[in-house]
Amino acid sequence: MGASGDHSKTGLAIIAGHGDLPRLLAEECQASGRKYAVVEFENIPLVWASTHPVIPTIFEKTGQLISQMQDADCLEIVIVGAMNRESIDPSKLDDKGRELAIILSETMKGGDDETLSSIIRFFETNGFRVRAAHDVLPSLIPQAGVLTNIKPSDDDIFDASRAAEIVTGLGRLDVGQGAVVGQGLCLGLESIQGTDTMLEFVKNNREGYAPNPTGGRGVLFKAPKPAQDFRVDLPTIGPDTIRNAHDAGLSGVAIDAGGVMVLRRSETVSLANDLELFLWVRPKE
Q1: Among the four residues 12, 46, 116, 201, which has the most C-beta atoms within 10 Å?
Q2: Separation between Cα atoms, residue 212 and residue 241, nearest integer Å
Q3: By the 8 A CB rule, do 55 and 72 touch?
Q4: What digits encode the pLDDT tens for the residues 156-173?
Q5: Cα-flanking dihedrals φ and ψ of residue 10, to 5°?
């Protein structure tokens, strides 16, 4: 639930998982002078966090974390970066940790969307506002259009449209946010293992599935799920995505306009140009 006003006056806790996004948000807060702290879990060491204010914690000590964020005047939070489903040590749980563990035990069977929504509700009930990463760094979400020198061909546009239909179906089932289609054929589907694993699968298994040797080489398409809460788990791409798409033999990458974050955009676009791939921010149909 967004509130109006100047959020930069309110402290921000960056609840950090793996990947570049937590670091990019911390650097943005640091550069803008916004009060912030990085929440670093014991089993997710953040090498880059040494130059930032850090709140160290473990998953079981949720009550302690809430108090630490309140003491740091960080009443807004952003939850970013990949996090594995960790085993919980019941002997370490504090009261709030036990409360959250019970909630998660009930919602995790329903899929990621239900789990993440329950986490958002938990923090909101405890007095925090949950923000989206692009609230902090709006440039993460590019405007519609082709960002690269290479443009998608008619074959690529067709494949992207077919992939968009597939991703919408996947999203309704709360399965994944990406698919690869080449010459109308689905070559790969994203599931819990993530985009990079899907692209590795396509790389190793695409032979024999391109009936037209002069047709499209395939397109990676990513989009949010139809019922996605844009504050958490919004799909992202970055330089690694481009490199892996190239290694998988694809023509390019298409993303849903307004619903996918591009990390390190300048580097991502430059790499796509160097590898002669297109990067298309596809308008919603």
Answers
A1: 12
A2: 26
A3: yes
A4: 999 999 999 999 999 999
A5: -100, 135
User: Which CATH architecture best describes the domain 7-136?
Assistant: 3-Layer(aba) Sandwich (3.40)
One-letter amino acid at 156 equals: D
Q: Hunting for tokens 């290479």 — which residue is that?
A: 150
- For CA atoms 253, 258, 261, 266, give the dihedral sign: positive
Report residue 26: phi and psi, to 5°.
Answer: -65, -40
Which stretch of DSSP H or E encloses residue 189?
strand 185-189
Here the tokens at position 139 are 């440039």
Tokens of residue 60, six digits:
């079981």
pLDDT in tens, 10-65: 899 999 999 999 999 999 999 999 999 999 999 999 999 999 999 999 999 999 99
Give the residue-averaged pLDDT of 209-231: 91
pLDDT band at 212 (very low <50, low <70, confident <90, very high): confident
Task: Tell me if the domain spanning 141-282 has CATH number 3.40.140.80.
Answer: yes
Q: How many residues are present in the chain?
A: 285
Place of tokens 């309110």: 10
